Amino acid sequence: MASVLTIHAMDPALSRRISSRARREGKSLNQTVKDALAESFGLKPGSSHTVADNGIMSLCGILPRDAADELRAAVAPFREVHPTHPSTGISNRRERSFPSATSG
Fold first, then answer.
1. How far apart are the first and last CA of the chain?
2. b/e burial code for range 67-102 (CB count within 10 A of at least 16 → b)
3. 3-state class of 44 per DSSP?
4. pTM, two decimal places
5. Residue 28 placed within a domain
6. How far is residue 81's CA from residue 77's CA, in Å, rounded to a whole number?
7. Is residue 18 a contact partner of residue 36, using CB atoms and an 8 Å limit?
8. How far apart are CA 14 and CA 19, in angstroms?
9. Separation between Cα atoms, residue 14 and residue 78, nearest integer Å
10. What's the number of domains the chain is made of?
11. CA dihedral in degrees (61, 54, 5, 37; nearest 10)?
């Protein structure tokens, strides 16, 4: 038999997000919440996080795909390597000079 769960005093922002997702996906609030819970625990087939909980999941955060894409886009500029600093023109490389055999 399936269990029944009642959630009291839900945060209004969370409630709006659930309602928005339900409308966008054409689902009931109940189905939307059940799908979100199943996905967050890795139980929904085809979920982006279907990793079985082996205890480590309580230590790790999982970003929804759209948030992960947004984070990747935000940090993309930091993946580039510039030979000189864009604002100062100072080289990131240190030029090494070695004394020659003929120098003093």
1. 91
2. eeeeeeeeeeeeeeeeeeeeeeeeeeeeeeeeeeee
3. coil
4. 0.44
5. yes
6. 9
7. yes
8. 9
9. 32
10. 1
11. 40
Q: What is the pLDDT of residue 26?
A: 95
54 and 46 Cβ atoms separated by less than 8 Å? no
Candidates 95, 76, 73; CA nearest to 84 is 95
Map residue 18 onto helix, strand or coil: helix
Phi, psi of 79 (to 5 degrees): -85, -15
Question: What pLDDT digit, counting tens, does each position of 48-95 carry?
Answer: 554 555 556 566 777 788 888 898 899 888 877 766 666 666 665 555
Expressed as residue numbers, the domain containing 66 is 12-79
Residue 88, in any domain of the structure: no
CB 84 within 8 A of CB 92: yes
In a domain, 3, yes or no: no
Q: Is 44 domain-assigned?
A: yes
Structure tokens at 16: 């709006």
In order of 12, 18, 19, 53, 59, the CA distances from 30 in angstroms are: 16, 10, 10, 24, 28
Helices (H), the chain: 12-25, 29-40, 65-75
